[in-house]
From TrEMBL:
PROSITE patterns, A to Z: ACYL_COA_DH_1, ACYL_COA_DH_2
Documented EC number(s): 1.3.8.4
Name of the protein: Isovaleryl-CoA dehydrogenase
Lineage: Bacteria, Bacillati, Actinomycetota, Actinomycetes, Micrococcales
Enzyme class: oxidoreductase
Tagged with keyword Flavoprotein: yes
Origin: domain of life: Bacteria
Domain Acyl-CoA dehydrogenase/oxidase C-terminal stretches: 236-384
Organism: Microbacterium esteraromaticum
Protein backbone atom coordinates (compact mmCIF):
# COMPACT_ATOMS: atom_id res chain seq x y z
CA UNK A 1 0.00 0.00 0.00
CA UNK A 2 1.27 3.46 -0.82
CA UNK A 3 -0.52 5.48 1.83
CA UNK A 4 1.24 7.84 4.21
CA UNK A 5 1.50 5.26 7.00
CA UNK A 6 3.51 2.88 4.84
CA UNK A 7 6.16 5.48 3.99
CA UNK A 8 5.93 7.71 7.06
CA UNK A 9 9.53 7.13 8.13
CA UNK A 10 11.18 7.27 4.68
CA UNK A 11 12.96 10.24 3.14
CA UNK A 12 12.36 11.42 -0.42
CA UNK A 13 15.06 9.24 -2.00
CA UNK A 14 13.79 6.17 -0.18
CA UNK A 15 10.21 6.86 -1.26
CA UNK A 16 11.39 7.21 -4.86
CA UNK A 17 13.18 3.87 -4.61
CA UNK A 18 10.08 2.22 -3.16
CA UNK A 19 7.93 3.64 -5.96
CA UNK A 20 10.40 2.57 -8.66
CA UNK A 21 10.58 -1.00 -7.37
CA UNK A 22 6.82 -1.16 -6.92
CA UNK A 23 6.26 -0.15 -10.55
CA UNK A 24 8.83 -2.70 -11.71
CA UNK A 25 7.22 -5.42 -9.58
CA UNK A 26 3.77 -4.71 -10.98
CA UNK A 27 4.77 -4.26 -14.62
CA UNK A 28 7.58 -6.83 -15.00
CA UNK A 29 7.74 -9.23 -12.06
CA UNK A 30 4.07 -9.99 -11.40
CA UNK A 31 3.11 -10.87 -15.01
CA UNK A 32 5.73 -13.62 -15.19
CA UNK A 33 5.37 -14.96 -11.66
CA UNK A 34 2.71 -17.63 -12.27
CA UNK A 35 4.46 -19.19 -15.26
CA UNK A 36 7.86 -19.07 -13.57
CA UNK A 37 6.36 -20.77 -10.50
CA UNK A 38 4.59 -23.39 -12.64
CA UNK A 39 7.71 -24.27 -14.61
CA UNK A 40 10.16 -23.90 -11.70
CA UNK A 41 12.20 -21.44 -13.78
CA UNK A 42 14.16 -18.41 -12.62
CA UNK A 43 13.65 -15.66 -15.21
CA UNK A 44 17.18 -14.38 -15.81
CA UNK A 45 15.87 -11.53 -17.94
CA UNK A 46 14.15 -10.17 -14.83
CA UNK A 47 17.42 -10.60 -12.92
CA UNK A 48 19.24 -8.70 -15.66
CA UNK A 49 16.77 -5.83 -15.44
CA UNK A 50 17.17 -5.73 -11.67
CA UNK A 51 20.89 -5.41 -12.22
CA UNK A 52 20.39 -2.55 -14.66
CA UNK A 53 18.27 -0.79 -12.04
CA UNK A 54 21.17 -1.05 -9.61
CA UNK A 55 19.32 -3.23 -7.10
CA UNK A 56 22.17 -5.72 -6.61
CA UNK A 57 24.54 -2.86 -5.82
CA UNK A 58 22.37 -0.94 -3.38
CA UNK A 59 24.33 -1.41 -0.09
CA UNK A 60 27.81 -1.34 -1.63
CA UNK A 61 30.25 1.50 -2.22
CA UNK A 62 30.57 3.08 -5.66
CA UNK A 63 34.23 2.05 -5.69
CA UNK A 64 33.23 -1.47 -6.71
CA UNK A 65 30.24 -0.56 -8.87
CA UNK A 66 27.67 -0.21 -6.09
CA UNK A 67 25.07 2.46 -5.49
CA UNK A 68 26.52 3.78 -2.23
CA UNK A 69 23.32 3.05 -0.35
CA UNK A 70 22.63 1.11 2.83
CA UNK A 71 20.77 -1.91 4.17
CA UNK A 72 17.55 0.04 4.57
CA UNK A 73 17.59 0.74 0.82
CA UNK A 74 18.21 -2.93 0.09
CA UNK A 75 15.30 -3.92 2.34
CA UNK A 76 12.99 -1.45 0.61
CA UNK A 77 13.80 -3.07 -2.74
CA UNK A 78 13.39 -6.62 -1.43
CA UNK A 79 10.09 -5.78 0.25
CA UNK A 80 8.75 -4.24 -2.96
CA UNK A 81 9.66 -7.29 -5.04
CA UNK A 82 8.29 -9.79 -2.50
CA UNK A 83 4.80 -8.30 -2.80
CA UNK A 84 4.69 -9.75 -6.31
CA UNK A 85 7.05 -12.73 -6.27
CA UNK A 86 9.03 -14.09 -3.34
CA UNK A 87 11.26 -16.14 -5.66
CA UNK A 88 12.54 -13.01 -7.36
CA UNK A 89 12.93 -11.25 -4.02
CA UNK A 90 15.00 -14.08 -2.53
CA UNK A 91 17.18 -14.12 -5.63
CA UNK A 92 18.09 -10.49 -4.89
CA UNK A 93 18.41 -11.06 -1.14
CA UNK A 94 20.69 -14.06 -1.49
CA UNK A 95 22.65 -12.49 -4.33
CA UNK A 96 23.50 -9.54 -2.10
CA UNK A 97 23.57 -10.90 1.46
CA UNK A 98 25.03 -14.33 0.78
CA UNK A 99 26.75 -13.92 -2.58
CA UNK A 100 28.46 -10.53 -2.64
CA UNK A 101 28.50 -9.45 1.01
CA UNK A 102 31.04 -12.04 2.28
CA UNK A 103 33.55 -10.85 -0.32
CA UNK A 104 32.76 -7.20 0.34
CA UNK A 105 33.07 -7.60 4.11
CA UNK A 106 35.93 -10.08 4.39
CA UNK A 107 37.61 -10.51 1.01
CA UNK A 108 40.99 -9.22 -0.10
CA UNK A 109 41.24 -6.20 -2.36
CA UNK A 110 42.10 -8.51 -5.26
CA UNK A 111 38.99 -10.63 -4.60
CA UNK A 112 36.81 -7.54 -4.43
CA UNK A 113 38.16 -6.19 -7.72
CA UNK A 114 37.73 -9.53 -9.45
CA UNK A 115 34.25 -10.54 -8.31
CA UNK A 116 32.23 -7.57 -7.06
CA UNK A 117 31.71 -5.58 -10.30
CA UNK A 118 29.81 -8.39 -12.05
CA UNK A 119 27.89 -9.33 -8.88
CA UNK A 120 26.78 -5.77 -8.19
CA UNK A 121 25.72 -5.32 -11.81
CA UNK A 122 23.47 -8.39 -11.66
CA UNK A 123 25.56 -10.02 -14.40
CA UNK A 124 26.68 -12.84 -12.09
CA UNK A 125 25.43 -14.55 -8.96
CA UNK A 126 27.22 -16.20 -6.06
CA UNK A 127 26.01 -18.76 -3.54
CA UNK A 128 26.87 -19.29 0.11
CA UNK A 129 27.43 -22.91 1.08
CA UNK A 130 26.74 -23.18 4.80
CA UNK A 131 23.98 -25.73 5.45
CA UNK A 132 24.76 -29.44 5.40
CA UNK A 133 22.64 -32.57 5.95
CA UNK A 134 23.65 -32.56 9.65
CA UNK A 135 24.57 -28.90 10.08
CA UNK A 136 21.79 -26.37 9.80
CA UNK A 137 20.97 -24.32 12.87
CA UNK A 138 23.91 -26.15 14.48
CA UNK A 139 26.38 -24.83 11.93
CA UNK A 140 29.24 -25.77 14.25
CA UNK A 141 28.54 -29.38 13.25
CA UNK A 142 30.02 -28.68 9.80
CA UNK A 143 31.64 -31.79 8.31
CA UNK A 144 32.90 -30.44 4.99
CA UNK A 145 36.69 -30.32 5.20
CA UNK A 146 39.43 -28.36 3.49
CA UNK A 147 43.12 -29.19 3.88
CA UNK A 148 46.11 -27.36 2.49
CA UNK A 149 48.15 -29.33 -0.01
CA UNK A 150 50.98 -27.08 -1.06
CA UNK A 151 49.40 -23.92 -2.39
CA UNK A 152 45.92 -25.42 -2.84
CA UNK A 153 42.91 -26.22 -0.66
CA UNK A 154 41.49 -29.70 -1.16
CA UNK A 155 37.79 -29.69 -0.29
CA UNK A 156 35.52 -32.68 0.44
CA UNK A 157 31.93 -32.69 1.63
CA UNK A 158 28.36 -31.79 0.81
CA UNK A 159 26.11 -28.77 1.17
CA UNK A 160 22.35 -28.48 0.84
CA UNK A 161 19.64 -25.87 0.23
CA UNK A 162 22.09 -23.49 -1.51
CA UNK A 163 20.37 -20.57 -3.26
CA UNK A 164 21.63 -19.17 -6.60
CA UNK A 165 24.13 -22.03 -6.89
CA UNK A 166 23.16 -23.49 -10.27
CA UNK A 167 21.97 -20.72 -12.60
CA UNK A 168 23.54 -19.98 -15.96
CA UNK A 169 25.13 -16.87 -14.46
CA UNK A 170 26.32 -18.39 -11.16
CA UNK A 171 30.04 -17.73 -10.91
CA UNK A 172 31.01 -19.31 -7.60
CA UNK A 173 29.94 -20.47 -4.16
CA UNK A 174 31.71 -19.70 -0.91
CA UNK A 175 31.71 -22.67 1.44
CA UNK A 176 32.36 -23.07 5.13
CA UNK A 177 34.74 -25.94 5.83
CA UNK A 178 36.68 -27.40 8.72
CA UNK A 179 40.32 -26.46 8.13
CA UNK A 180 41.76 -27.78 11.39
CA UNK A 181 41.30 -27.77 15.14
CA UNK A 182 42.16 -25.13 17.70
CA UNK A 183 41.83 -25.42 21.48
CA UNK A 184 39.82 -28.62 21.04
CA UNK A 185 37.28 -26.96 18.74
CA UNK A 186 36.79 -27.09 15.00
CA UNK A 187 38.55 -24.37 13.03
CA UNK A 188 36.06 -23.26 10.37
CA UNK A 189 37.11 -21.16 7.40
CA UNK A 190 35.37 -19.84 4.30
CA UNK A 191 36.70 -20.66 0.83
CA UNK A 192 35.55 -19.52 -2.61
CA UNK A 193 34.97 -22.28 -5.17
CA UNK A 194 34.37 -21.20 -8.81
CA UNK A 195 31.62 -23.05 -10.68
CA UNK A 196 33.08 -25.56 -13.08
CA UNK A 197 35.97 -26.50 -10.80
CA UNK A 198 36.74 -30.24 -11.25
CA UNK A 199 35.15 -32.31 -8.50
CA UNK A 200 32.56 -29.62 -7.69
CA UNK A 201 29.11 -30.88 -8.67
CA UNK A 202 25.90 -28.87 -8.60
CA UNK A 203 23.32 -31.59 -8.07
CA UNK A 204 19.79 -31.48 -9.61
CA UNK A 205 17.52 -28.77 -8.21
CA UNK A 206 15.15 -29.54 -5.36
CA UNK A 207 11.42 -30.11 -5.83
CA UNK A 208 10.33 -27.59 -3.20
CA UNK A 209 7.00 -26.71 -1.59
CA UNK A 210 7.46 -23.07 -2.53
CA UNK A 211 9.91 -20.55 -4.00
CA UNK A 212 9.66 -22.63 -7.17
CA UNK A 213 11.36 -20.01 -9.35
CA UNK A 214 14.28 -19.61 -6.94
CA UNK A 215 17.37 -21.62 -7.87
CA UNK A 216 18.26 -24.06 -5.05
CA UNK A 217 20.58 -27.08 -5.20
CA UNK A 218 22.58 -29.53 -3.10
CA UNK A 219 26.32 -29.38 -3.78
CA UNK A 220 28.99 -32.08 -3.71
CA UNK A 221 32.74 -31.55 -3.33
CA UNK A 222 35.05 -34.45 -4.10
CA UNK A 223 38.76 -33.63 -3.90
CA UNK A 224 38.04 -30.13 -5.19
CA UNK A 225 41.23 -28.12 -5.57
CA UNK A 226 41.27 -24.33 -5.46
CA UNK A 227 44.16 -21.90 -4.90
CA UNK A 228 45.09 -21.09 -1.30
CA UNK A 229 44.32 -17.43 -1.99
CA UNK A 230 40.63 -18.34 -2.42
CA UNK A 231 40.31 -18.16 1.37
CA UNK A 232 37.74 -15.48 2.26
CA UNK A 233 38.86 -13.65 5.40
CA UNK A 234 41.41 -15.04 7.81
CA UNK A 235 41.75 -18.74 8.41
CA UNK A 236 39.59 -19.88 11.32
CA UNK A 237 37.23 -16.88 11.20
CA UNK A 238 34.60 -18.52 9.02
CA UNK A 239 32.24 -19.34 11.90
CA UNK A 240 32.33 -15.83 13.34
CA UNK A 241 32.08 -14.22 9.90
CA UNK A 242 29.10 -16.22 8.76
CA UNK A 243 27.24 -15.38 11.98
CA UNK A 244 27.59 -11.68 11.19
CA UNK A 245 26.45 -12.32 7.62
CA UNK A 246 23.38 -14.14 8.92
CA UNK A 247 22.54 -11.29 11.31
CA UNK A 248 22.44 -8.90 8.35
CA UNK A 249 20.59 -11.42 6.21
CA UNK A 250 17.84 -11.70 8.79
CA UNK A 251 17.02 -8.03 8.26
CA UNK A 252 16.72 -8.64 4.52
CA UNK A 253 14.57 -11.74 5.05
CA UNK A 254 12.36 -9.73 7.40
CA UNK A 255 11.89 -7.16 4.65
CA UNK A 256 11.00 -9.96 2.25
CA UNK A 257 8.47 -11.39 4.70
CA UNK A 258 6.94 -7.94 5.18
CA UNK A 259 6.51 -7.61 1.43
CA UNK A 260 4.86 -11.02 1.28
CA UNK A 261 2.48 -10.06 4.09
CA UNK A 262 1.63 -6.84 2.28
CA UNK A 263 1.07 -8.64 -1.02
CA UNK A 264 -1.43 -10.92 0.71
CA UNK A 265 -3.18 -7.95 2.30
CA UNK A 266 -3.52 -6.03 -0.95
CA UNK A 267 -4.83 -9.06 -2.82
CA UNK A 268 -7.31 -9.84 -0.04
CA UNK A 269 -8.62 -6.27 0.15
CA UNK A 270 -9.12 -6.14 -3.61
CA UNK A 271 -10.85 -9.52 -3.70
CA UNK A 272 -13.10 -8.75 -0.72
CA UNK A 273 -14.27 -5.53 -2.36
CA UNK A 274 -15.16 -7.32 -5.60
CA UNK A 275 -16.55 -10.59 -4.24
CA UNK A 276 -20.32 -10.48 -3.83
CA UNK A 277 -21.72 -12.74 -1.11
CA UNK A 278 -25.46 -12.83 -0.33
CA UNK A 279 -26.01 -9.67 -2.32
CA UNK A 280 -23.21 -7.54 -0.83
CA UNK A 281 -19.46 -7.19 -1.12
CA UNK A 282 -17.52 -9.46 1.20
CA UNK A 283 -15.67 -6.37 2.42
CA UNK A 284 -18.88 -5.09 4.06
CA UNK A 285 -18.96 -8.05 6.45
CA UNK A 286 -17.53 -7.27 9.86
CA UNK A 287 -15.68 -10.58 10.10
CA UNK A 288 -13.86 -9.88 6.83
CA UNK A 289 -13.13 -6.31 7.92
CA UNK A 290 -11.62 -7.48 11.19
CA UNK A 291 -9.50 -10.08 9.37
CA UNK A 292 -8.20 -7.44 6.96
CA UNK A 293 -7.55 -5.00 9.79
CA UNK A 294 -5.43 -7.57 11.62
CA UNK A 295 -3.53 -8.27 8.42
CA UNK A 296 -2.85 -4.55 8.08
CA UNK A 297 -1.56 -4.31 11.64
CA UNK A 298 0.82 -7.22 11.03
CA UNK A 299 2.30 -5.53 7.96
CA UNK A 300 2.81 -2.27 9.82
CA UNK A 301 4.41 -3.94 12.84
CA UNK A 302 6.71 -6.08 10.68
CA UNK A 303 7.86 -3.05 8.71
CA UNK A 304 8.62 -1.07 11.85
CA UNK A 305 10.67 -3.99 13.18
CA UNK A 306 12.89 -4.47 10.14
CA UNK A 307 13.30 -0.71 9.57
CA UNK A 308 14.53 -0.39 13.16
CA UNK A 309 17.01 -3.24 12.75
CA UNK A 310 18.27 -1.86 9.44
CA UNK A 311 18.81 1.60 10.88
CA UNK A 312 20.78 0.18 13.80
CA UNK A 313 22.95 -1.80 11.40
CA UNK A 314 23.49 1.19 9.12
CA UNK A 315 24.44 3.36 12.11
CA UNK A 316 27.08 0.84 13.19
CA UNK A 317 25.20 -0.02 16.39
CA UNK A 318 24.53 -3.53 17.78
CA UNK A 319 21.59 -4.98 15.88
CA UNK A 320 21.60 -8.77 16.34
CA UNK A 321 18.65 -8.82 18.74
CA UNK A 322 16.68 -6.32 16.65
CA UNK A 323 17.32 -8.43 13.54
CA UNK A 324 16.09 -11.55 15.32
CA UNK A 325 12.94 -9.76 16.50
CA UNK A 326 12.33 -8.42 12.99
CA UNK A 327 12.64 -11.85 11.41
CA UNK A 328 10.45 -13.44 14.07
CA UNK A 329 7.69 -10.85 13.78
CA UNK A 330 7.73 -10.60 10.00
CA UNK A 331 7.89 -14.35 9.43
CA UNK A 332 4.80 -14.75 11.59
CA UNK A 333 3.12 -11.89 9.72
CA UNK A 334 3.77 -13.49 6.34
CA UNK A 335 2.43 -16.88 7.39
CA UNK A 336 -0.61 -15.46 9.20
CA UNK A 337 -1.49 -13.11 6.33
CA UNK A 338 -1.06 -15.87 3.76
CA UNK A 339 -3.45 -18.06 5.71
CA UNK A 340 -6.01 -15.28 6.21
CA UNK A 341 -5.81 -14.13 2.60
CA UNK A 342 -6.36 -17.67 1.38
CA UNK A 343 -9.42 -17.90 3.63
CA UNK A 344 -10.78 -14.61 2.26
CA UNK A 345 -10.41 -16.01 -1.26
CA UNK A 346 -12.20 -19.23 -0.31
CA UNK A 347 -11.95 -21.91 -2.99
CA UNK A 348 -10.11 -19.56 -5.31
CA UNK A 349 -7.37 -19.25 -2.70
CA UNK A 350 -6.59 -22.91 -3.31
CA UNK A 351 -5.91 -22.27 -7.00
CA UNK A 352 -2.31 -21.60 -7.98
CA UNK A 353 -3.31 -18.95 -10.51
CA UNK A 354 -4.00 -16.60 -7.60
CA UNK A 355 -1.03 -14.95 -5.91
CA UNK A 356 -2.27 -15.77 -2.41
CA UNK A 357 -1.91 -19.49 -3.13
CA UNK A 358 1.70 -18.94 -4.10
CA UNK A 359 2.30 -16.83 -0.98
CA UNK A 360 0.70 -19.57 1.12
CA UNK A 361 3.26 -22.08 -0.18
CA UNK A 362 6.18 -19.67 -0.25
CA UNK A 363 5.84 -18.13 3.19
CA UNK A 364 6.55 -21.21 5.30
CA UNK A 365 10.27 -21.06 4.50
CA UNK A 366 10.37 -17.58 6.06
CA UNK A 367 10.06 -19.31 9.45
CA UNK A 368 12.97 -21.62 8.60
CA UNK A 369 15.57 -20.08 6.28
CA UNK A 370 18.50 -17.97 7.59
CA UNK A 371 17.68 -19.02 11.13
CA UNK A 372 14.53 -20.81 12.26
CA UNK A 373 11.91 -19.23 14.50
CA UNK A 374 13.41 -21.20 17.36
CA UNK A 375 16.86 -19.75 16.68
CA UNK A 376 15.44 -16.22 16.72
CA UNK A 377 13.78 -16.94 20.08
CA UNK A 378 17.10 -18.25 21.38
CA UNK A 379 18.91 -15.07 20.26
CA UNK A 380 16.28 -12.93 21.97
CA UNK A 381 16.40 -15.04 25.14
CA UNK A 382 20.17 -14.70 25.32
CA UNK A 383 19.79 -10.93 24.94
CA UNK A 384 17.60 -11.08 28.04
CA UNK A 385 20.49 -12.68 29.91
CA UNK A 386 18.93 -16.13 29.91
CA UNK A 387 21.05 -19.27 29.45
CA UNK A 388 20.77 -23.01 29.73
Amino acid sequence: MTDALSHADLDEDQRELAAMVRDFAEQVVAPQAYEADRTHTLNLDVVRQMGEMGLFGLPFSEEYGGQGGDYLALGIAIEGLARADQSIAITLEAGVSLGAMPIYRFGTEEQKREYLPSLLAGEALGGFGLTEPEAGSDAGATRTTARLDGDEWVINGTKQFITNSGTDITRFVTVTAVTGEKDGRKEISTILVPNGTPGFTVEPAYDKVGWHASDTHPLTFQDVRVPAENLIGERGTGFRNFLSILDEGRIAIAALATGAAEGCLEAAVDYAQKRIVFGAALSTRQNAQFTLARMRARVHTARLAWHHAARLRDAGKPFAEAAAIAKLVSGDAAMDNARDATQIFGGNGFMNEYSVARHYRDSKILEIGEGTTEVQLLVIARALGLSG
